[in-house]
Amino acid sequence: MAEVLDAEAVRAGLDGLDGWTGDPAGIGRTVELPGFRDVIDAVDRVAVVAEELDHHPDIDIRWRTVTFRCATHSVGGVTRRDIELARRIDEIVRGAA
């Protein structure tokens, strides 16, 4: 079973990621894109990656913004899987901006 990262490990995992913040309970990032269609396209691409990883973020969609939140619900906090998903989300968002 995955292990919840401590605060130092979460900070280290987020180092180098764009705009992610959080603590051992969860990490998140809000992104603003040019338009609603761009947001939906990015979310569609994140959905494909989430299915590949079998690890799914919470997603809040607004007009031109989308917020991603990651935590491994089965263990009650952030694990290495969440850091990897955040890294993959960053790659997608960079391509969408």
From TrEMBL:
EC number: 4.2.1.96
Pfam families linked to this entry: Pterin_4a (PF01329)
EC category name: lyase
Organism domain of life: Bacteria
Entry-linked InterPro entries: PCD_sf, Pterin_deHydtase
UniProt KW keywords: Lyase
An MF annotation (GO) of this entry: 4-alpha-hydroxytetrahydrobiopterin dehydratase activity
Reaction catalysis annotation: (4aS,6R)-4a-hydroxy-L-erythro-5,6,7,8-tetrahydrobiopterin = (6R)-L-erythro-6,7-dihydrobiopterin + H2O
Family: Belongs to the pterin-4-alpha-carbinolamine dehydratase family.
Stated name of the protein: Putative pterin-4-alpha-carbinolamine dehydratase
Organism ancestry: Bacteria, Bacillati, Actinomycetota, Actinomycetes, Micromonosporales
